[in-house]
Amino acid sequence: ISESLASDVRAVMIQSQVESWNYEQLIEALKSQFSEWSSVRAGVIAVNESTRAANRGAVEAWRQGGIRRKEWLTSDSPCDYCAALQGTIVGIDEVFLGEGTDFQPPGTDRPLTIDYQDVEGGNAHVNCVCVVMPIEEYQ
Fold first, then answer.
1. How far is residue 15's CA from residue 30's CA, in Å, rounded to a whole number?
2. Is the pLDDT of residue 37 over 70?
3. Helix/strand/coil percentages in the chain, nearest 5
């Protein structure tokens, strides 16, 4: 999505977090903000941006708490791209997939092009609900 559209979506997402909206309220706000969108598109954006925000917030909390590494965890029925990432561990400040890269694990027809932003955790693609978990290290 364009930078100005991304900024508009961010503003709605921030308002939804401040006011503790549920998904239905968020979808309605996105639909009214962007009247040309279908409810399906608004729903997809709501889920994607909520998951991205939750993952980013968690990673930031872990960083502040001294966690140094994170691990990719898939949903119950992951796509082939996310299945290939399952269990991948990176540093807390590292990305799983960098913006501008093509990711094509074995068994996929075509690469997954990362063209929106770095994948720091979860949200490798539209409708991705994968998450990251902290790796606790004991001394």
1. 11
2. no
3. 40, 15, 45
One-letter amino acid for residue 3 of the chain? E
For residue 12 the two structure tokens come to: 């709605």
Q: What is the mean pLDDT of residues 8-30?
A: 85
pLDDT the model gives residue 3: 62
117, 49 Cβ separation under 8 angstroms: no
Structure tokens at 8: 């508009």
Q: Which residues contact 117 (CB under 8 A, 6 or more apart)?
A: 99
How far is it, in rounded angstroms, from Cα 49 to Cα 32? Answer: 17
Tokens of 102: 């093509």
Query: Please, what is the average pLDDT of the chain?
Result: 85
CB 132 within 8 A of CB 93: no
Give phi and psi for 2, each to the nearest 5: -65, 160
CB 30 within 8 A of CB 14: no
In this structure, which amino acid lies at residue 138? Y
Residue pointed to by tokens 């979860």? 122
Nearest partner of 80 among 43, 41, 132, 130, judged by Cα: 130
What is the pLDDT averaged over residues 62-66? 92
